[in-house]
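Appendix B, example 12.
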Amino acid sequence: MTRRVILLHGLWMNGLTMQWLGARLKAAGFVPETFGYHSIVGGPDDAVSRLATLLRDGGPAHVVAHSLGGLIALEALAADPELPVERVVCLGVPLCGSGAAAGLTRWPLVSLWLGRSAGLLQRGCALWPSRVQVGMVAGSLPRGLGALFAHFEQAHDGTVSVDETRSPALADHVVVAASHSGLLFSAQAARYAIAFLRHGRFEPVD
């Protein structure tokens, strides 16, 4: 079984935000590695390139990624389908584009918060090699500033709507009671992630 797991944080975050989840993965027998990148000033192009190098040089791996990090991981896989990745767990990733990000762009000064990641967040990335199993853990606890800009009408985690996390290409999809940032500290989300990395599906968890 592949035990190496690359962890990617989301927008406005850094690698430290993945430590809690990384500890849960380590306790489950995986070997987590955190991939850090500059989500505002660096932009996705640099992150995609560096991630591809890390994946290519380090041997077979899984990926667990939050929000923007999931889009970066899928961009890397789309650009190089031969990267040795077996499974990807996405946490609150707007595969269909982020309504909150689109809303922010209507406020020029506020939109600067998105930096060079604005384009990727708005358009999303719903394509990846069919051999790679991708599972999505979405949140449904509506706490976050994103709701002020997106005006969600359906279930959401405060930043990303559940509908924005869906794609027919997903191997599995599950919703937990967590906010967008809370997905990183949800025991249930962690158990679902571990189940998917082991079996390629979200087996029932307590």
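The radius of gyration is 15 Å. Residues 5 and 189 are 16 Å apart (CA to CA).
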